[in-house]
């Protein structure tokens, strides 16, 4: 048998080596997770500029800081991976009647750019322990394969690159949505066919005698398809493409008061024109689109129909021909129906006269955002087009807020700034940089690497009272560990905090003395009482309020509680990453908001905590 001292020394040496190996392996992650004790300089992954790729790098870095976009990419790639490949192998053309080439439609349904962008953004969101830079070429290669053409490095416009990527992602989302909806419709039709086949097998003679049964089944199937479209499509639109929004516009005539039907348009990036002034604000740039605009000399459709009807009535009153009177009355009735139902669709067989002689009116054009996107990408157009196709850059200062309110008072949404792309230089040359907000700590951050994460619950759930297994009467009792104690190696002779605060309990006279022959026979019951007391203490701390009027519970009754204050909104992180290709350094919010002459692209995310 080996010596006890030798065993202890060997165990201590082994434990030291294990601890050293643990620190060596997990040390880099530990130092990154703990900012206060870290001696390393935090950084993010940069992008190499190999062929004037700063316009690509800046957009990718800005997209990498958008949490809603990353959630969408994870959901879409996971959905295509777990579903049957036959769902996306069956090509479904768009519903608007456009016919896409087979190779392009297959690429849209497969989500080529969606997969490529997810891999690129995942690589950019790694936590490097030292300076690291990767190449954007893998994602550029995916784009070239998806479009079957090379991406030109001559234009060097970050907005055009963002527009290409955003529109492609939107088309891939809707292509996948159509493929899934088509597969559901086929499944419902197959189920209906199976049910009808079972019914036909039970009564063949009746089906043979009546041929209208098949027509009835077809009508039912069409109703089923429409129901599936109406019920299942909105559920996916609620989790749609986060960059896609909609705005609608309508025109109101200031003479007759007629308001046209709203025309809705979708957008992935919102382009705002910067006025040619020394300084302006983002809200004033929004007024160029979402502010009521008054226009003169507009041809109102309602006024045109009313004028034509009035002319026919005057001519019918002057004429003596019965045939002309009957024709004029017929045209007047058709015009009246169009005026009451839809003035924008006049009758085809009624002559309205030359459009040049239509009455000119003053109208009010109003545009509003009807669908607010989760991610609002704003492009500030700084191009000034002069005489002779000479284009210059508008270097006006544009102030932009950290929190952006949009919409009317009743339907207002608030956005928070997460990314900015700036441009330095002239219209035909310059350099792009990106600013990414440091969203730390993340909602899934592990505060301590060697302890459990608080991803599921911010408040720890109280432990239940441990169950004591049945033992023999003469067996020695084993002390149950205290629930609030971090160590289970507590002796029964050491009083707990709960027992020390509890007043002494008198022993009734009819009960035997608990101390018999110098032994504590009440050890088991006292241990159980301490466990129960500790459990009650833990539950009371969670259930009862911590404060009363005097700072403690009043004796003889429940504690008087104060109204709980509202939780404060979490402030946005003050630290940013300023990324210029491979160069990465930290920046503050004041520095980002000060880039008023250079700001080119803005990325806002919908604030769900408003």
UniProtKB/TrEMBL annotation:
The keyword Cytoplasm does not apply. Residues 456-574 are annotated as: Disordered. It catalyses: Thiol-dependent hydrolysis of ester, thioester, amide, peptide and isopeptide bonds formed by the C-terminal Gly of ubiquitin (a 76-residue protein attached to proteins as an intracellular targeting signal). The keyword Membrane applies. One of its GO terms (molecular function) is cysteine-type deubiquitinase activity. One of its GO terms (biological process) is proteolysis. InterPro entries: Papain-like_cys_pep_sf (IPR038765), Peptidase_C19 (IPR050164), Peptidase_C19_UCH (IPR001394), USP (IPR028889), USP_CS (IPR018200). Its EC number is 3.4.19.12. Pfam families: UCH. Belongs to the peptidase C19 family. This is Ubiquitin carboxyl-terminal hydrolase.
